[in-house]
Every structure is written in C-alpha cells, then in structure tokens.
TrEMBL record:
<feature type="domain" description="Ubiquinol-cytochrome c chaperone">
    <location>
        <begin position="34"/>
        <end position="169"/>
    </location>
</feature>
<dbReference type="InterPro" id="IPR007129">
    <property type="entry name" value="Ubiqinol_cyt_c_chaperone_CPB3"/>
</dbReference>
<comment type="similarity">
    <text>Belongs to the CBP3 family.</text>
</comment>
<protein>
    <submittedName>
        <fullName>Ubiquinol-cytochrome C chaperone</fullName>
    </submittedName>
</protein>
<dbReference type="InterPro" id="IPR014569">
    <property type="entry name" value="Ubq_cyt-c_CBP3-rel"/>
</dbReference>
<dbReference type="InterPro" id="IPR021150">
    <property type="entry name" value="Ubiq_cyt_c_chap"/>
</dbReference>
<comment type="similarity">
    <text>Belongs to the UPF0174 family.</text>
</comment>
<dbReference type="Pfam" id="PF03981">
    <property type="entry name" value="Ubiq_cyt_C_chap"/>
</dbReference>
Length: 181
C-alpha cells in the first residue's frame, strides 16, 4: 500500500515532459541572440509565455482529452512560476500577490497575441511582441514571423505526437532579416 505513494503517475509524467520541452524551446539561444528577446528574467518569462501560448492554442484545436492536457500544462506552468519565485527568495506571504501579477501578465499576453495569430496578422503580432517581449516601441517583425510559423506548425500535430515527441518549434535564426531573405 505504501509503495503506491511512490509510483509515477503516467499522466503527470507526460505533462511534466511536455512542459519541459516547451520550456527548453523557450530557452533556445537564437531567440535572444537572433530575434532580440532580452536575455533577462523578464525576457525569459516573455519567451516562455509566448511558447506556452502557442502550445495551448494548438491544444485548443485538438479533440478531447487535449483540453485536459491544456489545463494540466497550464497548472505545470504556474507551479513552475511559483517555484521560481520561491527560489529567488520571495517570501511566502508575497508569493500569492506576485503570482496574481504573473497570471495577469500571462493571460494579458494571450489576449494580445491571440487575435493576431488567429488572423495571421504579422504586423499586429509584431507590435504586440515588440511591446511585451522586447519591451519597446519597435515592432518585433522577426519574432512575429517565428511565432506565426510555430503556431502553424503546432496546429498540424496530433495530441499523440505532441505528447510523445513534444512540440517542434522552428529554428529562430531562420527568421532573422538575413534568414528570411
């Protein structure tokens, strides 16, 4: 009986693996060096948020149980954010307030990116990414092309493939001004 406490839950393992693959994709050096996301704590949050939003959009298009996977994946993201805040030394009493800000930032970005991704509107997405991911007024055209390609690519994948192989995000360097010529 006690050993059942130590058994791995296959569903939880699959979600953890999927989340790890998305997080790893969000850390690709080309996103920072070639596409201009600042290599800072905020920049890394922006990159992870963008990749999570794209993965969740793909899951929304798939039949059940993709909706359960999306919920579990979102939970994994917020557990990771909570753990990261605690590792940085944020006190237990402050973590819930910070998590509300993290959630508001994440869902705000999803609301900002969704219409442009739905419409395939590179310029609108570039504006939103410029404001959020790059933290400036200049549009992030290369990053927008990357996000649109990633969104399109993930929507062509089945849930089984997504869970077995993970999401295949494009190579960021292919979307620089030189790479897109």
């Amino acid at each position: 009986m006690i050993f059942s406490l130590f058994r791995k839950d296959p569903r939880r393992t699959a979600i953890a693996t999927l989340y790890a693959r998305i997080a790893n994709a969000s850390r690709h050096p080309g996103l920072y060096a070639a596409l201009g996301i600042p290599d800072t704590l905020e920049g890394r949050f922006e990159s992870l948020s963008l990749h999570m939003i794209i993965a969740l959009r793909a899951l929304r298009q798939l039949p059940p149980p993709a909706d359960d996977v999306a919920k579990d994946l979102t939970d994994a993201f917020f557990r990771d954010m909570d753990a990261s805040l605690r590792e940085m030394g944020v006190g237990d009493t402050v973590v819930p307030k910070r998590m509300k800000k993290v959630a508001a930032a994440f869902y705000g970005r999803a609301q900002a990116y969704d219409p442009a991704l739905n419409a395939g509107d590179e310029s609108a997405l570039a504006e939103a990414l410029g404001r959020n991911a790059l933290g400036g007024d200049a549009p992030a055209a290369s990053l927008a092309r990357y996000a649109l390609a990633a969104d399109k690519g993930l929507k062509a994948v089945t849930l089984d493939v997504l869970l077995e192989s993970g999401p295949a995000f494009p190579v960021p360097e292919a979307f620089t001004e030189e790479g897109s010529r």
